[in-house]
Amino acid sequence: MNRRTLVGGIAAAAAAAAAAAPGTGAPRRIGMGDVDRLQQRFGEIIASDHRHGGQLGIEQRAAALADEALNLQNAGSASQRVRSSLYASAAAFRSSAMWAAIDGRRYGDAKTHMREAQALAEMSGDQAIKFRIWSHAGTMYRHMGRPAEAFAANDVARNLHITRRDPLFASLGLARQAAIHGASQDRTGTRRAFEQAQDAMLRADPSDYRPVWMLAFYDQAELDSLALSAHLVLGDYPTAEFHAHRCLSALRPHMVRSRAITTTRLAHAQLAQGDVDAATATAMRVPADAATQHARVARMLQEFGAALRATAPGTTTMQTWTEHAADWKMAA
């Protein structure tokens, strides 16, 4: 759908709803307190995403919260600042629905959320949420194996003014660019972009204001997680293992999903270096719920089991892994 058409459709629907609303005397005044209450609930969704990730329920809750923010536009009068904040909030909530769908490998749904989030972000004028949506789009296309579109989407995010104003946004854009270079088998581009991402992170002022979604996940651990992903796909397993250990040592306690993903990738890096026992022990540390309910983790563990069978068929280690994987399924 054309972006202008979608923006016009959302605006027209909002106007129609307002015109159809029955007259009930003086309209309610919508204020920043209403926006803040929505943001508090958004924080709960983000926390749930970091614990579980990719679940359909998280996607649905985020989408419903976006609709609630839009409904507030028609619930009464409001200043332009409040209306812009409501559009920005709705865009942020919809982009979280998009991310949950990406994390759960439901790419068709993710694209639908992306289109609506982009339209809402345009109406809000909020640079941070525009960055988030286009950066998510780059990650989505990378996971789909479409690097040209991943670069194009991530470039939109990186070219926004906010990346020149705040080095932390620049760092995230560069780190995700490096991950796309890795998926494209470009070693030089990967190394250069990660060096630039690290430099930008070191220049960022921790005291600067940033949205809750940014504060909740992007730090040195996430940069190392992206480096792990890139070097793993490049076949540079010792470097991948280095970044995995550094990521795990720095991950904040609430990043449960990220720990499961990083642990699984670490197991792959160790197995590729021939360290069968250590790799198996690492993979067995992944919690049962992540191993069976998180789409990306489950897929990576299936691939790990196949690689282990090819590397160490008929061994005690292989038998131990098979039994452990069966226990996961029973626990689920």
From TrEMBL:
Keywords: Signal. Gene3D superfamilies: Tetratricopeptide repeat domain (1.25.40.10). InterPro entries: TAT_signal, TPR-like_helical_dom_sf. Residues 1-20 form the signal peptide. SUPFAM superfamilies: TPR-like (SSF48452). PROSITE patterns: TAT. This is XRE family transcriptional regulator.
